[in-house]
Amino acid sequence: METLRTEIQQGIGWIFFHRPEVRNAVNFRMMEELAEVLGGMREDDSVKALVLAGDEQTFVSGGDLEEFHRLKTADEVFPVHHRMGNLLEELRTFGKPTVAAVQGIAVGGGCEIAAACDFRIASDQARFGFIQSGLGITTGWGGGSRLLEQLPRNRALYLLLSGERVDARRLYEWGWITEVVPFAEFLPSVRRFVQSFTQRSLGVIQAYMELADATREGEPRDQLVRREARTCARLWETEEHVQAVEDFLNRPRPSRPSPFPGPDR
């Protein structure tokens, strides 16, 4: 990989954007590599969750202007934006929890990538900016519509229209950032957060992701209830559930003191 660094540790797939010379800007090569890695980690049962991260300075700074601005017309640039938008839709429907881990700056397309993830963990020094409006364009990778789903209309529109760079604490208060953690303890904090659910079975994780997607897509309530009953029934007969119940029933029970006083001594 030229533009990404990847690893799998303890059920977590890590993707690090790695073009530090251009602040991790997305170019055509990165799009190809990201598509390849997402496909591989989606199918890898050892991966229970996915984390996307940059470096201490920058998460992603958007599209690579030097490459993308060789495209001069709408007909030339539309397929590129549409392809990246579809790639981020694959991320949004990855089937396993996804986390955008932003330690430094995320602007433009970097914010669109973050918006495609289930969780956004930021350091206390991170800043975010949908800066496209200041460049005379809109979001092009689906980030605007996702943001409008995730925040109240007035707050999402403010971020999109103003292009203001906003600190992580403010976006945490708005509910868009999941957690704000200390800059110096960033990656260990992200790892602890993700491990809180990667300890669960892949079947349970995928079932809840499917339920979340169905709920977001507006599946009727009666079908959601039926879905949950069927999923629980399917997992009921798995070895993991049977063993967990046996362990629970056979757990040591603390002895209780007798309610009656003993004889005087």
TrEMBL record:
Signal peptide: none annotated. One of its GO terms (biological process) is fatty acid beta-oxidation. GO terms for molecular function: catalytic activity. It comes from the Bacteria. Pfam families: ECH_1. InterPro entries: ClpP/crotonase-like_dom_sf, Enoyl-CoA_hydra/iso. Coiled coil: none annotated. This is Enoyl-CoA hydratase/carnithine racemase. It comes from Kroppenstedtia eburnea.
